[in-house]
Amino acid sequence: MFETLLGKTVLVTGASAGIGAATATEFVKATNGNIKLILGARRVSKLEELADGLKKLYPSVQIYVGQLDVSEVSKIDQFFAQLPAQYSEIDVLINNSGKALGQEKVGDIDPTDIATVFDTNVLGLIAMTQIVLKGMKKRNRGDIVQLGSIAGRWTYAGGSIYCSSKAALKSFTEAMRKELTSTKIRVIEVAPGNTKTEFALVRFKGDADRASQVYEGVDTLLPQDVAELIVFACSRRETAVIAESIIMSTNQAGPQDLYRKQ
């Protein structure tokens, strides 16, 4: 099923934990280590732990680890400039980095939080895409996977900034897909619902009690659920694209339509 992925070079942003780490792991498992990974995140020590663990299980896998904070858009070029030659032709880009900060209502939102969310979820994603797409156009092949969110489709009170950032991602992705229909480059958006990761802890700025309440009484998605969908989409025949996918736990039908056990 995954023969089409063998030998490819896959770049995953935000790969130090959660969906990013699970996606990197799933690509390696699917190819039995016959793949090259470029892992980028702010926490390099976490990336190194992930890489070491994967290499022990799959000695043939090739992994490059580099520090990358996509919210620092002016520094993204440096990340690519440092890539070894054998990783220069990127076949698959997984734009996984993303965050939400706080749940303040409009009028009370910290301008710094607004800038950080848009720098990460929109401007950083666009910058990563533009750089990688240049090479894909030259080779006339490649997959660009954007990690969206159900919040980009259905809004909720307290989510104005996060929801609008993910809606911007969706619009950017749709327009790019239309621009690339004459090529063999596939543009894929995967939009998860409630997934148990560090997302809530980051959103509530380290408040573990508040973050844990997000998942109370809920059988959430796990990062692996999303990772499996991403790898499946990237393994299809090059003439087929799973353009958009929404994945939620069976007890969810929207951002606030979530059944909680009593």
UniProtKB/TrEMBL annotation:
UniProt GO molecular function: oxidoreductase activity, acting on the CH-OH group of donors, NAD or NADP as acceptor
Signal peptide positions (record): none
TM region(s), chain numbering: none
Keyword line: NADP, Oxidoreductase
Protein family according to the UniProt entry: Belongs to the short-chain dehydrogenases/reductases (SDR) family.
Protein name stated in the entry: NAD(P)-binding protein
